[in-house]
Amino acid sequence: MNDRHVALIRAFYDALGQADFPAMESCYHPEVSFGDPIFQEVEGRNRVMRMWRLQLGMRTGLTSAYREVTADDFSGSARRTVGYTFAATGREVVHEIDTLFRFEAGLIVRHHDDFDFRRWSRMALGRPHGPLFGWTPRWRKTIRDGATRRLDEYEPA
């Protein structure tokens, strides 16, 4: 167990829960990459932080609880339960996220979130789209393309 890396993960999640972007950014390596089922791959600290600003701006009433934080000298993991109102639909979302981290120079250089895309789409999008289409590759591509387009167009305040 590497206590310094466990503390880094906890600091990141505490900052995320408070939307403290400078504190979040201080946990990331300049060459950090982020991936999840929607954004897939986002490269570089500036772009990853834009993605977080975009995501947190699309959600209201964010709750986030993390647990099972472990880390060694090279990698770490954690589980999170996240709840929010998805702004695009006004629907409540509560889902479980499993996260893997890699570290370099005492900072997070790789951050990968994994969650059940189909379950998320049922909650976030509702009927008929979520249950009917949430599992299809075409629907996933539509969601991913839209997220990438919003990230490309996003200008933080």
UniProtKB/TrEMBL annotation:
InterPro entries: NTF2-like_dom_sf, SnoaL-like. Residues 9-111 form the SnoaL-like domain. Pfam families: SnoaL_2. This is SnoaL-like domain-containing protein.
